[in-house]
């Protein structure tokens, strides 16, 4: 078989960011056309060559563009190399028995047209291609799984609860919970406010939760978390998933209300979704059911093409996206 | 039987404190001689009249001398009324079937010579009078129980751990843990430092725990807690018991390192010992065994007489006590 090679446009990191640049610029990324890649895996290789269809813009990615003295839970990007994130891909050529050309998969890939994946064990086959494939960068993938594990396993819902994030909010609704979210009309949440525009967060929470909060699914951190603490109910749980309001700060905001953890007997617990990958298939089946029945609604904000990817990623820190931000690179 | 009445010296609260006065003054307390009390309970009453032998000086008491707009987990003291805390008492007269004159008990009582206790169900009989009775204001009472519940139930020790507080530190030693405490020689702790004198708390912890901390039994809060977080190991537990460094501050210090709760998958959980009173008898038996076998050592700082009580209480905020602070009022 003749080796066909194609050009490969990609987004690379040019230089490391400083923490305060997280939501600014974009000149630390560059779109280049790399040397042509052959459209089949090397002979004898167990790798898989994929065509990237969608890539995911996630808050944690800008943090990987900072050089960390102390390792975090994920490795830093390297200047000159392609940016990576989760994506949806089509297998073009496979040296691995579990995959064949034409398979649709999701997993870690490059921000480029084609990627040679040397550890295909990390890929997941897409079991429900009847949904928009882009859903496999979010609601049917790690974001959905994060909401699912964070809500059902970590937060142990009983009845009432708060929640942040569109999916966890809807999972809470399925369980009959009382939740806050930005988009209450769209997602059917009981109440909502925009934490960036609220002058008194503690009062806003008290307004939304006159009887207090049983479960906080925390993705904001800082002043928002400080306002949550006095509004928690006895024995409440704070599931710590992220702190998007803090990543761009040179020094994180101080949280002063931690005494409530004692007086209200709260549990605050952190989790990183990579630890829960074993639950994925169970989650995928359950979430596919919720989507099919219309119990979960999902909104995506899709930009077209790799050239638009750097700005799309920066936009999520400035609140420019409505719904899950992703980049469409090619059609299946 | 003739009613014998005796005079009754007592410590009353004169006025509410402000938060920043917690470790200062003492003029908000006053030692007065109240009207004579009859030395038997009123006819038909279910109350118990006790002679107070020892009273306990505890950090939470000064907090009860502040007027709280929002109720805390315990009621505020009332100006003009006697200060109360846990103590060791001898029953003088009883209207309650469970108690008789001569019984030694511990529980909530007044800072005075004699107290009429209207809810004797709250009292515990002393099962091991062979130990110094004063131990029932500490190691054999709520302080010991706090260490016991906080360590064994909340912190779920495996092997390595840190701990603060003399009893929890020794419980940790019994379990083979590596612990930090002020008095390592006395209690046999592996290492120790004084958080009030250490210029760089984060570095001090790293020195004591080069491999990181699995369990933090937190009683200090503020900057100390902030220094603990980066030194925690993956999946570690922070049992939140108190924040003595914060109670005198108008505004608590901000804790900035909470992101480690996520990246290190930490659990931070608060508890209030009043919820765990059901475990007391099991604890008392076990702790009596540890004391008898010399596995737990216990140091008390005893001042004599009610006149010395206000200064003794203030002293614990200024680090003047060595060991558990208490006041001896009378001999059994």
From TrEMBL, chains A, B:
<dbReference type="InterPro" id="IPR041694">
    <property type="entry name" value="ADH_N_2"/>
</dbReference>
<comment type="subunit">
    <text>Homodimer.</text>
</comment>
<keyword id="KW-0560">Oxidoreductase</keyword>
<dbReference type="InterPro" id="IPR011032">
    <property type="entry name" value="GroES-like_sf"/>
</dbReference>
<dbReference type="Pfam" id="PF16884">
    <property type="entry name" value="ADH_N_2"/>
</dbReference>
<dbReference type="InterPro" id="IPR045010">
    <property type="entry name" value="MDR_fam"/>
</dbReference>
<dbReference type="Pfam" id="PF00107">
    <property type="entry name" value="ADH_zinc_N"/>
</dbReference>
<protein>
    <recommendedName>
        <fullName>Enoyl reductase (ER) domain-containing protein</fullName>
    </recommendedName>
</protein>
<dbReference type="InterPro" id="IPR013149">
    <property type="entry name" value="ADH-like_C"/>
</dbReference>
<dbReference type="InterPro" id="IPR036291">
    <property type="entry name" value="NAD(P)-bd_dom_sf"/>
</dbReference>
<dbReference type="GO" id="GO:0032440">
    <property type="term" value="F:2-alkenal reductase [NAD(P)H] activity"/>
</dbReference>
<feature type="domain" description="Alcohol dehydrogenase-like C-terminal">
    <location>
        <begin position="163"/>
        <end position="284"/>
    </location>
</feature>
<feature type="domain" description="Oxidoreductase N-terminal">
    <location>
        <begin position="41"/>
        <end position="125"/>
    </location>
</feature>
């Amino acid at each position: 078989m003749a080796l066909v090679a194609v050009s490969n446009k990609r987004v690379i990191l040019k230089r490391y960011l400083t923490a305060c640049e997280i939501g600014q610029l974009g000149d630390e990324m560059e779109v280049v056309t790399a040397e042509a890649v052959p459209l089949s895996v090397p002979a004898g290789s167990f790798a898989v060559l994929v065509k990237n269809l969608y890539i995911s813009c996630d808050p944690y990615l800008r943090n990987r563009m900072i050089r960390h003295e102390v390792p975090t839970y994920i490795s830093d990007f390297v200047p000159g190399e392609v940016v990576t994130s989760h994506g949806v891909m089509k297998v073009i050529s496979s040296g691995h028995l579990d995959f064949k050309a034409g398979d649709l998969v999701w997993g870690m890939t490059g921000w480029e047209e084609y990627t040679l994946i040397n550890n295909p064990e990390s890929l997941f086959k897409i079991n429900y291609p009847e949904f928009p494939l882009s859903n496999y960068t979010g609601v049917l993938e790690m974001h959905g799984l994060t909401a699912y594990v964070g809500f059902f396993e970590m937060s142990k819902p009983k009845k009432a609860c708060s929640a942040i994030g569109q999916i966890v909010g809807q999972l809470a609704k399925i369980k009959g919970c009382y939740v806050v979210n930005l988009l209450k009309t769209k997602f059917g949440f009981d109440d909502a406010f925009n934490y960036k525009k609220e002058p008194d967060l503690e009062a806003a929470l008290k307004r939304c939760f006159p009887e207090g909060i049983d479960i906080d699914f925390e993705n904001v951190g800082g002043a928002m978390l400080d306002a949550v603490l006095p509004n928690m109910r006895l024995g409440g749980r704070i599931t710590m998933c992220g702190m998007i309001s803090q990543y761009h700060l040179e020094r994180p905001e101080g949280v002063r209300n931690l005494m409530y953890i004692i007086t209200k007997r709260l549990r605050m617990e952190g989790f990183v979704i990579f630890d829960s990958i074993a639950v994925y298939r169970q989650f995928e089946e359950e979430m596919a059911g919720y989507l099919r029945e219309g119990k979960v609604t999902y909104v995506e904000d899709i930009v077209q093409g790799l050239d638009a990817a750097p700005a799309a990623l920066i936009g999520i820190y400035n609140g420019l996206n409505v719904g899950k931000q992703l980049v469409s690179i090619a059609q299946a």
